[in-house]
Every structure is written in C-alpha cells, then in structure tokens.
Amino acid sequence: MLFFKKSRYNCEAAKIYTIFTLHPLTVMDDWNILIESTTDGLTTATVLEVPDCQIQDETKQGAVEKVQLLLQKRLAKAEIIKIPAPIQPVAPENPLMKFAGIFKDDPDFMEIMKEIRAEREDDSEI
Description:
five-stranded antiparallel sheet; alpha+beta; 25% strand; 2 helices; single chain
C-alpha cells in the first residue's frame, strides 16, 4: 500500500509529494518526491534527497510506486551514518588585516600621506 500526501509546493509542470516509507532501516521517515510530466507523456519521479534515485512511468501513481520501491531497495543495501563536521569560516580572515589602522593616530604618518597626495596631484612633473 502506498502512503503519500501532497506538499505545499505546487506548480504546473512539477509537484512534490512526501512519501512515508515504512522500511525498518530508514533513518528518515519522510522522503520528498518530485513529480514531473515530460513532453512525451511520461511521468518522472525523483527522490529529492537522493537525486540519482529517479524513475519514469506512464502514470503518476506508477511512477510514485516504482520510485518508492527503488528507494526501499537502495536503502536495504545501504547504511546511513552520521559524522561530525566542524564548521569552518566561509572565508578565512585576511592576514594583513591585523595591520589595518596601526597608523590611525600617528601624526608623522599623516604628514607623509599629505606629501604623497600632493605629489600625485601635481601634474607638472608629467
């Protein structure tokens, strides 16, 4: 017997259904199935959590039933484990940032910067 309910996602070309699997080895109880109608009249069912678990059939009901069986067969031969994954910063900090602002209140540096700006703005040397 097939248990499924329509999820909130809805569009003309594709619909997502949640399949409630009753497989004892399944870590997840709910799997999201993307149902798409192809131009040649077939219906494609894809398990969103396992994108390469996909099947085509002439009817939507047949595609859903076949993809559920395919998923159950795959899970029967698989083992799902959890591994720790330390969170890494998205972008490492620039090592030069530790020098940013070190001359902020240095009057000698401000004088040097004024001289450099004056030389750059002086067009007479070109």
